[in-house]
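Each field is set out underneath.
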Amino acid sequence: MKINELILGKYRLLEYLSSGSFSSVFRAREEMTNRIVAIKALSKDAYPADRMRYLLTELEAMSNIWGHPNIVSILTVEPGKDDYIAWIVMEYIEGNNLHKLVQQGDLTLNDVLNIGLDICNGLKAAHAHNILHRDIKPQNILLTPDKEAKIADFSIARIFGESTKFAVTMTGTRRYMAPEQHYGAYDFRADLYATGLVLYEALTKQFPFSGEVDEIDKKKAAGEIENLENCPEEFRNFAIKALHRDVDKRYQTATEMYNELDRIRRWQYEQQASILIAESSNSPATELASALERCRKTFRLQIDIAEQINQNLFFEMRSKVEKENKEKLKIQLMQHYNVAIEYARNGDKDETLRELHKAHTLCLQDAELVAQADALFKETSPAVPFSNALTVQDITALVENFSETEKSILLDALTVSEVEIEPEVDYKEPEVFPEELDMPVAPKTQVQQAENYRVLIEEASPEFLLDKVHEDIQYPHEEEAAYIFQQAQIYTQQENIRRCYSQYKRLGAFYHRHAKRFIRMDEIELVANCYTRARFAYAAARKQREARRNARNGAAYYVHLARQLELQRSWIEAGKSYILAADNYRFAQLILEVEKCESSATVCYFNAAESAHLIGDLQTAYNYYMSIITIGKNLPSPPRAVHEAQKLLDEIRTGNYE
């Protein structure tokens, strides 16, 4: 065959590529389509009658795995003439084989990992069709310009039948044979051993066994791997297992080998991505996103896998920063208190209060630190000679002097809690009566429930509400929900709005699904909570229709819960449930239902206030009367409970009570 010769009237030979014992390979052009192909010309001398089975085996093997991206595909087989028995027309791979690339020394660890993954992918397909390649070597691994590997030359492949899974004929390239191939009874694991040899050589540019052929065979059988110190540490364990002399202690399947190489690749990507993220603190988010995308393409990771790794890294980084900030905050807090104690000992009340004010301003940023601050305040307060109790006017004057930031922090601290503050067992709040104060009694330890929920839910964004509800994990399903929410937050930090909305939508569906589950379990409060959280999530995802539908469902179940609590005379909890129902109805734009729920809430709070009033707990009664009036002022037709609350509140203020 000559260059520029036309074969069968449609393939023009362009270039001689290589030759072996049985064939020669040419680059050719299909004249009708102008497609470039590779043609493997099979010599008649190499295929006498007793060797025709090898040709038929290769053709059968290739037909079974045709089209796999990591196996060179046969396009067609043409009958030969003259000195050739057949021409196999294959896809043309415009690149070098692995042997040439190793000699050039252009391969990185990441390149070798990706090549190994491609080989394993091809072997998975071949082995799934009971095809044992038997000649995996660098010359038979072709690489595209993008270094995508494709397995070539199935000329000595063995196709196993139903009754046998072992080959006995010693065939292949001896240098890359597994030890057991010399003794017969070998299987698919021989291909995996050869793959380990190929990757080791590609990475270290040295063969793991030195010497002549017989000496190499002995070292393979003894498991004496050389130059192991030249292997990168993360690849060393892979090589030891892949080249183990005991076939049962090696990788047993191509899938197992693939998974280990993939694990190393992901670890490598994670290390590189963590460096990029750490170094990007002062860079625009778009630059970091571009850098991570380039890194992902280098490692040839799928987008969802790379993003999952990125999200974990962002979460770890944020947790680390939060922890560091918390430690700094604690140090600042203790510094303010130490200074305050010194001022207190010296009798400087003004400076003491100033330092305590600075400390409490810090504390309002963290619930745990608030508790610590309260405890420390009790310890330091006896040292400060407070002669007069603060009145409402005094407190108002102090707040007026706050900066806008301090006011915002104070408002958050007073409105975000949904839990009543329980007094300490060994501490009793002293009774304070109106005649001892310049102004009416101000709320102290009791949380004003109605105002709390209104400020929290009506004025806060759905993202803020989701952040608050996921601060305290009480049930198993909340852990998964918190994870989805964290993913949404990470996408927000990355300014990836589309994926952020997608995660919020996923969170909404998650809570909606669990609400239905809790209905079957008759867990009414959990049903109401899940529907409400689904509303928050869908609102954050800008899915208003789904948000309103879940709001209606949540409201209905909060009303159901409130009525159960009324039967148990749990007035405070019932009122709280009515307020939550009202908020959901308000979001769903069902104004009449809002008014019904708020009216019912005033009745519940009135019952709670009246009970406290009767036993002389004027502070608690005052709090709930104020809550009733706050709710009632928004109602077009305030119920009787609002008017009665106003009257009783006036009695407390003027001291006209029994």
Q: What stands out?
A: The mean pLDDT is 80. The two ends are 120 Å apart (CA to CA). The longest helix spans residues 303-345.
